[in-house]
Specification:
By secondary structure, the chain is mostly helical. The chain has one domain. The chain is 68% helix and 4% strand. Strand 1 and strand 2 form a beta hairpin. The longest helix is centred in the C-terminal third of the chain and has 34 residues. It is globular, with a radius of gyration of 21 Å.
Length: 367
């Protein structure tokens, strides 16, 4: 029998914030594809709106059943994500120097994006079953480490180092939220610092160049440093109030690369200035705070850990993308949620919001 509390507890505020971010993203994307020389067509905006519709449908579908079913289905969802990543290696479409997409008729999906949600589910399931409140030991972290390692290896092979590292960051953030014993934390910190110099020797040449460019963009201004230099020029030229809608010269003259995806924040900064960026940042902060409130109000461990996992996933997307376009972090190709063009990232974002809404509206139900 239908429980009316599902309607009375529906989180309209979280839904409104999501739709508002989508509207902001659509306006900025229109400017990016309307004025940019290399992507001067409105087809990208139409496709983005199509993905918004698909994402909205996925979000509504995720509300039809209790989020606690995800606890039961967690292993199968995770295994399905791994199979999709294996499918990318075998049948994936190759483009831009990487094999990251599966072609399903007229559309392409990026399974590595969906894997982030699957990872949040399986880690929340594991921590909910092992949580004691006394802190995790080293041996308690072996299984979570392996759960992150398997998709990490498959995604690195595409290659997509940025997304692969993001999986470890999400897993690490959720682990810190669950809690570590002091000696466990100190041991991991020491091991991590010891491994940092060794990682350099396992990086590919283009990955090393990205790090060197991050440290000194001027070492190759027409090559690897071009993105960062042009992005900084666009951001700085916007000053306080920007140049106005469709008034960005860096974008219009096609100096700004990847203006509709990774560097779309630079388009917003040039046209709307510091004030526009501050408004977007405020919306993101409100969205993240609202998401954490869903976790806070949840009455069971699985729902709490799942809500925190989805929240930290969105936080790191925002943090890394903004740091990247400002030259504070290396360029790793992480999209800005609900703003950057990209079908799989949009669907993943809507799916995450759907799960948060599900947790919020069913938080009063105790099995």
């Amino acid at each position: 029998m239908f429980d009316r509390r599902l309607i009375t507890h529906f989180d309209w505020g979280l839904l409104a914030l999501t739709l508002l971010l989508g509207c902001v993203g659509s306006v900025v994307l229109y400017s990016a594809v309307h004025a940019g020389g290399s992507v001067n067509h409105d087809g990208l905006l139409v496709r983005q709106l199509f993905w918004f519709a698909i994402g909205g449908g996925v979000m509504l579908f995720s509300l039809l059943f209790s989020y606690k079913r995800l606890d039961q289905w967690g292993v199968f969802i995770y295994a399905g994500g791994l199979l999709l990543l294996v499918g990318v290696m075998v049948f994936g479409r190759y483009g831009g120097g990487a094999r990251r997409w599966l072609v399903l008729g007229p559309i392409s999906i990026q399974p590595s994006e969906l894997m982030k949600i699957a990872l949040c589910i399986i880690l929340a399931r594991y921590f909910a079953k092992t949580f004691t409140g006394e802190g995790l030991r080293i041996r308690d972290l072996v299984q979570p480490f392996l759960l992150v390692l398997f998709p990490f290896i498959l995604i690195v092979q595409q290659p997509d180092l940025g997304t692969a590292i993001l999986l470890f960051i999400i897993g690490g953030s959720l682990t810190l939220f669950v809690g570590l014993k002091r000696h466990t934390f100190l041991t991991l910190m020491g091991a991590g610092l010891a491994c940092v110099p060794m990682i350099w020797f396992f990086l590919k040449e283009y990955q090393k160049q990205r790090i060197l460019t991050f440290l000194d963009p001027g070492r190759d201004p027409l090559g690897t440093g071009y993105h960062i230099i042009q992005s900084k020029i666009a951001i700085g030229s916007g000053q306080l109030f920007g140049k106005g809608f469709l008034g960005g010269t860096q974008n219009a003259l096609d100096f700004l690369p990847e203006q509709h995806t990774d560097f779309i924040l630079s388009v917003l900064a040039e046209e709307w200035g510091f004030v526009g960026c501050a408004v977007l940042l405020f919306l993101y902060l409100l969205f993240l705070a609202w998401s954490l409130n869903v976790a806070y109000r949840c009455r069971d461990a699985f729902g709490t850990f799942l809500a925190v996992g989805i929240t930290v996933m969105n936080f790191w997307h925002i943090f890394i993308n903004m740091g990247m376009v400002m030259g504070l972090l290396p360029v790793v190709g992480v999209p800005l949620p609900m703003v950057s063009y990209g079908g799989s990232s949009v669907v993943t974002m809507f799916l995450g919001v759907g799960i948060l809404l599900n947790i919020s509206m069913r938080r009063f139900i105790v099995d």
